[in-house]
Amino acid sequence: MIEFQHVSKAYTNDIYALRDVSFSIGDGELVFLAGPSGAGKSTVLKMIAGLEKPSSGMVMMNGQSISKLKSGSLPYLRRKLGLILQGQGLLLDRSVLANVMLPMIVVGESMADAETRAYAALERLNIQDKADASPLSLSGGEQQRVAIARAIVNRPQIILADEPTAFLDRENAVIVINALKAFQRSGVTCIISSHDEQFLEQANRVIYLSKGEVTDSWTSAVIPSVS
Ligand code: ADP
Ligand code: ADP
């Protein structure tokens, strides 16, 4: 359970990126953070990841305040998270498979386990045939799928994806959204920011931000499928 309690954020003195934002997200929900560019969507995701702190208010995860975590506890929080942030590219000096293995190596898994799981993660995104390729040889859509495989290889409880369909054509965007929905069906909480309104109908929950404030929020019972 993730809870924002009266969260405001000012990066500079008097310009608010978020203003008195409150909402909660239950385990296993698929939530779209919607709203135009500059609305504060990335800021919300960064706060959940502990990368930005609120100026006032609290961000809670499972009843614990994320902003009060000591820096030594942040790595444990991050292990629960699969982060797909903008501008976090793949490492170009190694193969696709090696990129996806990296998060597992960092937490001390064996090379053999890392390789097996990384390959399986690539299979989930249907990009396993590029395992040995250099990221440089992939299209934008393929790179994004590899980035998602890298984010999910450690089986996170929560996936945070910032504009995962930006710059993708419709076909690749549908692959990415369907992959995220498949994770949600297997119990993972997915929080996806998007200014792309065509995907809003895919969510069971939409939180709409405008100029740093929540202006709308709705929940639907049925999650339709994309084609
Ligand atoms: P979105 O993801 O909806 O485009 P952001 O959360 O990135 O919105 O940005 C919200 C507001 O905060 C914008 O006005 C943006 O310029 C500002 N902002 C974001 N990050 C920073 C930063 N590191 N320093 C100063 N201002 C920032
Ligand atoms: P798509 O958006 O359908 O993935 P692209 O036309 O960008 O389309 O790529 C088609 C195929 O060509 C992909 O499998 C990709 O890996 C490969 N490809 C794209 N750019 C290069 C490149 N510079 N060198 C080698 N292969 C490439």
TrEMBL record:
<feature type="domain" description="ABC transporter">
    <location>
        <begin position="2"/>
        <end position="227"/>
    </location>
</feature>
<keyword id="KW-1003">Cell membrane</keyword>
<dbReference type="InterPro" id="IPR003439">
    <property type="entry name" value="ABC_transporter-like_ATP-bd"/>
</dbReference>
<keyword id="KW-0131">Cell cycle</keyword>
<dbReference type="InterPro" id="IPR015854">
    <property type="entry name" value="ABC_transpr_LolD-like"/>
</dbReference>
<dbReference type="InterPro" id="IPR017911">
    <property type="entry name" value="MacB-like_ATP-bd"/>
</dbReference>
<keyword id="KW-0472">Membrane</keyword>
<dbReference type="InterPro" id="IPR017871">
    <property type="entry name" value="ABC_transporter-like_CS"/>
</dbReference>
<dbReference type="InterPro" id="IPR003593">
    <property type="entry name" value="AAA+_ATPase"/>
</dbReference>
<dbReference type="GO" id="GO:0005524">
    <property type="term" value="F:ATP binding"/>
</dbReference>
<protein>
    <submittedName>
        <fullName>Cell division ATP-binding protein FtsE</fullName>
    </submittedName>
</protein>
<keyword id="KW-0067">ATP-binding</keyword>
<dbReference type="GO" id="GO:0051301">
    <property type="term" value="P:cell division"/>
</dbReference>
<keyword id="KW-0547">Nucleotide-binding</keyword>
<keyword id="KW-0813">Transport</keyword>
<dbReference type="InterPro" id="IPR027417">
    <property type="entry name" value="P-loop_NTPase"/>
</dbReference>
<keyword id="KW-0132">Cell division</keyword>
<dbReference type="Pfam" id="PF00005">
    <property type="entry name" value="ABC_tran"/>
</dbReference>
